[in-house]
Amino acid sequence: MEHTTLEIFCTVAGELSVTKAAQRLGRVQSNVTTRIQQLEEELGVSLFFRDNKRMRLSLQGEQFLQYAKALLALAEEARQVLHPAQPAGVLRIGSMESTSASRLPGPLAAYHRRFPQVKLRLTNGPSRQLIAAVQNRTLDCAFVALPPATEDDAGIDLEDLGLASTPMFREELALLLPAGHAPVKEVGEVEIRSVAAFMTGCTYRTITERILGSGSSVQPLDFQEMGSYHGMLACVASGECVSLMPRSVIALMGKPKGMRELPIMKIDTLLVWRQGYETPAFDGLRGLLAATLH
Length: 294
Description:
By secondary structure, this protein is an alpha/beta fold. It has helices at about 5-15, 20-25, 30-45, 60-80, 95-100, 105-115, 125-135, 205-215, 230-235, 245-255, 280-294; strands at about 50, 55, 90-95, 120-125, 140-145, 165-175, 195, 220-225, 245, 260-275.
């Protein structure tokens, strides 16, 4: 199977539309359709279901998509390694929402000025999903946080997962409480059991579950899953929820008058990548971050 065919397949899989994929690729629609049909014949499976001009990936298509992305990523890595003098190509970076908002705008802008030939692709998500994406080569690197180990949970061993890491940012986590909540000095005094947080896989959500959900007599937590910190802040302001977030994000958004903060802990944001992954584009990012931070 050809590299170009894999690119076409991944684009169609992303758009779920031959017409949109053709426009994005700058190809005629018939060419895209023919390439997909040839790929299906070569593999001996149907990669898409087609109903009333609508498309969706088949089970085999979903499985093959992961391999196709990995093959394209490996080819891109090889291409960059063979031309070490000048960083170029694509660098796919994953990041927690908080890091993207409060820590990365400056460094990424500096990176673009220094290495204009590199196309940066930034994807936000929870730490657990970002780690999996780095493992399966959907991302080249990611900024994540790991929950502290406990007696019952040894935590994630990145080395066992084939990943390398280095600390990049130190965050101070604080639990936000509504203005009407009574003053508290420790988490055991928090009365509200509704929490605004990201989806499962978010490290800050895991920490919230640990600090507020411990104890057999404690009322279960009710999580309201949000897509942004602004949404979480609004939920806290309504008086119905609490929310755990970095103080760097709180400072960026601006805390409403009267809203309370309870300091919880400090935690590192790590830059993780696959062991042995060294491209000029990635080395440039690590070098720039090291120079900026130190």
